[in-house]
Amino acid sequence: MWSRLYWLAVGGPLAAGLLVMGADPAPLQDLRNGLFDLYQRAAPRPYDPDLPVRVVDVDDASLARVGQWPWPRTTVAELTQKLAALGAAAIAFDMVFSEPDRLDPASVVKLLPAEARAPAEAALAGRDSSDQQLAATLKASPSVLGAILTHGTGGAYAEKWGMASAGDDPRAFVPRFSGAVVPLPELAAAARGIGALNWLPDHDQVVRRVPILLGLDGKLVPSLSAEALRVAQGASTYVVRASNANGDQAFGTKSGITAVKIGALDVATDAAGEVRVRFTATDPRRFLSAADVLDGKVPPAEVEGRIILVGSSAPGLMDTRATPLDAAVPGVEIQAQLIEHIVAGARLVRPDWARGAEIVLTGVLGLLLALALPRVSAPVAGVLGLAVVAALGAGAWLAFTRFDLLLDPMGPGAAVLGVYGMGVLALYRDEQRQKKWVRSVFGRFVSPKVVERLAENPERLVLGGETREITILFCDLRDFTSLSETMDAQALTRFMNAYLTPMTEVVLAHGGTIDKYIGDAIMAFWNAPVDDAAHARNAALCALAMSARLEALNAEWRRAAEAQGRPWHPVRCGIGLATGPCCVGNLGSAQRLEYSCLGDDVNLASRIEGATKSMRVDILVSEATREAAGDLAFLEADLLMLKGKSKASQLYLLAGDPDFSRSDAFSRLEERHGALMTAYGAGSFGEAEALAEALAASAPARLARFYGLYVERCRGAADQTDAPAAPA
To answer: Transmembrane region positions (predicted)?
Structure first.
């Protein structure tokens, strides 16, 4: 029996680790990317100013000299001419000239008064437009223009290149798009190259890989960086190698693209035709101010024979991206760093065999440690486990610094630590069994303080009770029956777990005791068994936090529904609070105990929760709760005759926390709310309706439906008042 439990204990984390590594879910990819980012920050590629790449930067100084962006196309043409005259090998624009120049003199003339327009048009007769002038300059220069691929429709994409491939069809592996935002036809026809500007960051919006090729309407198109390299070398055709090309050993599997040949450069890529860039820190030597180029202040050696990328670092133009080294760099700098990476022969590779090797290593190390644990002491096993983890980290760092390989030591390391931890727990389980049982049983329902108290004093788990003042909370989902009818049993179970788990966490975080779950409802109370002098206040703050947490859950569920293409309906709940004396303790039988409470105020809290539906609010509290938690923001709701009560109960809205109660916004809300209640009580329904409509538009969203109810009440009361008397 001992052996079976031990192997279950050590086999669980090992199997889980292997399964997770095999599935490679998004969170694991995020962790791995974070680790690889740390590698780059610890040992970035050093910047080499001799590499043939420069960025002509439309920086703040350039904007101050020329004017705000976009510049007249004649200025862009002048910039291009000066760069070409200085001997640039390629001039690539990290921007899209998709619309006619709005600063063209002919366009500006149209804005003049009618009497001044004719002379100006006559003066401009026969003059080439600024776009035509730019086109002429582009045609005479080694120019490359940018385009943006989209998932919609767009203009015709001029092909300036040839495309050859070997092996599997590479179009099946690249990111695919259906449309494009392209340069003006006359500019596209004049340029020697057109490259896509699309970024494909990871979902944390960090750019780690940059595409060389993308798919557009069944064709391959190159990126801006690839086109700059092609034009600079005078090459005409890209040669794409994919799996199962001659010399590749893919054994029939379609694993993706392996390399793209651009002129004399053989660029290794990942399966999707992307390059993981070995970044450098931002260096001012990489940049040339566009203003300096226009003013002739740039030494020819900075331009001659180099690939020039024209872009902007000006914050106002919003062209910034995050990289593993920097939180915000100009997008054009990433293009430049990719070209540097390629020209310098740098490489940063996550090999195809890496994940398989990591999985095998995890299994071997986990099994060896599991065999060793029963034979050595816990400290020796701990040292052994830590040594293995350290060796994994050192090996991964060595692979990065010496061989440019990205290997992940976290999976094997986590599995080793998991095997060690679970093995030790299994070996020494008897000592911890009783406290572990108490915590596992009661930790889901009572506050951590109560768990510790019960774990230290198990004798408290006996029949009996005491009378004390507590605050009770009931929380129930709205329209749960209709909601449940849209789900099968498994989906409903997943939904309830996804809802009840965070709500329970909120209750426990606010010191509450979970009494029970009643279907979709939660019952909790405060001030028992551990004393809580501020129990009403803590319960009210918990109600606010539960409402906020449900809003966050709704946002998550909406995103998931939209991603899956299924309808989504917001989930709402009602929360009722009451404060008063109740009997609390371990209630039940000798066979089964529950720490619970009984009393009239328990029923009152349940009835108040039910009233939230008719009052169209998410939180209502009793008068006793309001008095006990007076520093929160409360508003009068209504005097209601609740089911099972012999007299009406005054109920209050919980509008916000103490900070909100002290704010000017609440003071204004409280004043206008009081005016509404006064007008409604006095029968001034027209005035009350106007106040309710204004409050419905300006009050916090949580209260808008409540004021909408009062609008309906006022209209109904006014209609009854205005109705003619029935004939005798």
So the answer is: 353-373, 380-400, 412-429
- Interatomic CA distance for residues 479 and 572, integer angstroms: 8
93 Cβ contact partners less than 8 Å away, ≥ 6 residues apart: 143, 144, 145, 146, 309, 310, 311
**Angle value at C-alpha 404, between 399 and 409, nearest 5 degrees:** 40
The amino acid present at 316, given as its one-letter code, is G
Quickly tell me which residue has 């670092």 as its tokens. 313
Q: Are 170 and 209 in contact (CB under 8 A)?
A: no
State how far the Cα of 712 lies from the Cα of 616, in Å rounded to an integer: 12
Residues forming a β-bridge with 54? 308
d(CA 208, CA 279): 9
Q: Distance between CA atoms of 93 and 57, rounded to whole angstroms? A: 11
Helix (H) / strand (E) containing 586: strand 573-588
What gap in Å lies between CA 612 and CA 478, rounded to an integer?
Answer: 10
- 440: number of Cβ within 10 Å: 10
* Backbone φ and ψ of 405, nearest 5°: -105, 145
Q: Residues 71-115: pLDDT tens digits?
A: 999 999 999 999 999 999 999 999 999 999 888 776 666 666 766
Write down the pTM of the prediction: 0.56
HEC readout, 7-18: HHHHHHHHHHHH
Quote the crossing angle between the two packed helices 331-343 and 224-233, to the nearest 10°: 50
List the alpha helices (DSSP H) in 664-700.
664-681, 685-698
Instruction: Provide the β-strand partners of residue 573.
Output: 477
Give the other-Cβ count within 10 Å of 217's Cβ. 14
In 72-115, the DSSP E strands lie at: 90-93
pLDDT at 356: 86
Strand 90-93 versus strand 176-177 pairing type:
unpaired
3-state secondary structure of 98: coil
| Coil/strand/helix, residue 310 | strand
Tokens encoding 115? 């009497």
Structure tokens given for 601: 């105020």
Banded model confidence at residue 462, pLDDT cuts 50, 70, 90: very low
How confident is the model over 220-263, as pLDDT tens digits? 999 999 999 999 999 999 999 998 876 555 445 667 898 999 99
DSSP SS3 for 465: strand
Q: What's CA 187's distance to the chain center, in Å?
A: 38
At residue 639, φ and ψ (nearest 5 deg) are -105, 105
Q: Which H, E and C letters describe 407-428, residue by residue? A: CCCHHHHHHHHHHHHHHHHHHC
Q: Which two tokens stand for residue 84?
A: 């070409």
- pLDDT, tens digit, for every residue of 388-428? 888 888 999 999 988 888 898 988 888 888 888 887 777 66
Closest by Cα among 212, 211, 222, 333 to 279:
333
Which residue from 409, 306, 308, 286 is spatially nearest to 357, judged by alpha carbons?
Answer: 409
Helix axes 26-42, 410-427, angle to 10 degrees: 120
Between the alpha carbon of residue 44 and those of residues 39, 270, 316, 325, the distances in Å are: 8, 21, 28, 8
State how far the alpha carbon of 413 is from the alpha carbons of 22, 363, 387, 410, in Å: 15, 11, 10, 5
- Written as six digits, the tokens of 265 are 């450069």
- Rg of the chain over CA atoms, in angstroms? 35
